[in-house]
Write a structure and sequence with these properties.
With 362 residues, this protein is an alpha+beta fold. It has twelve helices and nine strands. It folds into three domains: 2-160, no CATH class; 172-230, Arc Repressor Mutant, subunit A (Orthogonal Bundle); 250-347, no CATH class. The radius of gyration is 24 Å and the shape is globular.
């Protein structure tokens, strides 16, 4: 059965958490204005990431060539072999003794991470997840922890907001011919990979510089007219299909997303009901504020995740929720927030606006 919908209604972070916590194995296809991406999952973790805009196989080989790990002629021969055997490029390299397993794995991990992380910048698009068998290479078993990718995605998204609208991981730069004597060592190391073909993500891979730092350098070089962006045509929109499960019925494909969403809503309402029951506040729950309670519960779950992400990035919890945004409940009131003995407490005063009463939400 497929889970499908719009990223406006159900964001990437929600989708990845759902797949991770339910330990799903299958394929997630995402389609946006500029790209179509296919992620495979094995028991909740990312097993591969393929972008239609940046063909991963050719990009994978290109990076290894530019790193000096493999010669161009060996790459071409391997690509020809791939056409006849259908083997993955990394498996061909390994089988023929052309590249060390560590080099293959490191490059694959870097590529997969970048492909997933750049999806966090998507504000629009569609998704479709389908549970099905996924094969992981026995020789180069690469799976990425989905929770780590979530943290990394949030970190990069936060940093990239500083250069938003100026550059993306897909931006391709070319030199303008202008020179400057005062380039720093980092600027020179990054500039040598600007060739009119490498996009920002490849430049990051080749330079070994932190993604945000490399992006800042590229923006600086662009603003000084040393480099300029190259126009890239968008991917023609066409549906990305995923093989259906054997025996799947068409009406199930239509009804399942609705059933899934209803199940989420009822599970949240059940949690609220259980809390209300324990405080003998059933009347308050079943009043006109039940939907707001459900929304507030979901917001609290999201805030807990953001707080944990903040700790992951900075080594400690934020002193206040204001450090991660203007957080308010469904009634427009700020939450009560505190950390005690390593445990995060986020509390809404509920409909009556008074803390310590039966309708509090946490």
């Amino acid at each position: 059965m497929a889970l499908e919908g719009s990223l406006r209604d159900f964001g990437l972070a929600d989708i990845l958490q759902l797949i991770y916590f339910q330990k799903k194995t299958g394929v997630l296809a995402l389609s946006g204005k500029m790209d179509r991406v296919r992620l495979t999952f094995y028991e909740g973790n990312v097993a591969s990431a393929e972008s239609r805009k940046r063909v991963e196989e050719s990009r994978f080989g290109k990076i290894l060539v530019k790193k000096g790990v493999i010669k161009e002629e060996y790459l071409k021969a391997s690509l020809e072999e791939q056409k006849t055997t259908g083997l993955r490029l990394g498996d061909i390299f390994l089988k023929n003794g052309l590249v060390k397993k560590e080099d293959i794995r490191d490059t694959l991990v870097s590529q997969m991470t970048e492909t997933v992380v750049q999806l966090f910048s998507w504000k629009e698009g569609t998704y479709e997840f389908q549970a099905q068998q996924v094969t992981v290479s026995p020789d180069i078993p690469v799976t990425l922890d989905t929770q780590h990718l979530l943290m990394e995605g949030l970190r990069v998204l936060d940093e990239w907001s500083l250069v938003e609208g100026k550059i993306t991981l897909d931006t391709v730069f070319a030199k303008t011919g202008e020179t400057e004597a005062s380039l720093t060592d980092v600027e020179e190391s990054i500039l040598k990979f600007v060739d009119g073909e490498n996009d920002v993500s490849i430049i990051i891979d080749l330079s070994g510089v932190d993604d945000f730092e490399a992006s800042k350098v590229l923006v600086s070089l662009m603003e000084r007219d040393i480099i300029e962006p190259v126009t890239v045509s968008p991917v023609v929109a066409e549906p990305m299909t995923v093989l259906p499960e054997v025996g799947e019925r068409s009406f199930v494909r239509v009804l399942y997303p609705a059933v899934f969403i209803i199940a989420i809503v009822f599970s949240l309402m059940a949690a609220s009901f259980q809390q209300a029951w324990s405080h003998k506040g059933i009347a308050a729950f079943w009043g006109g504020d039940s939907l707001k309670r459900t929304v507030t519960l979901k917001r609290i779950d999201g805030l807990r995740f953001m707080v944990e992400a903040y700790k992951y990035r900075n080594g400690s919890y934020p002193a206040s929720l204001g450090q991660i945004g203007d957080a308010r409940d469904a009634w427009g009131r700020p939450y009560s927030y505190g950390v005690e003995d390593g445990s995060v407490n986020i509390l809404s005063a509920g409909p009556d606006g008074k803390m310590g009463t039966a309708d509090d939400i946490y």
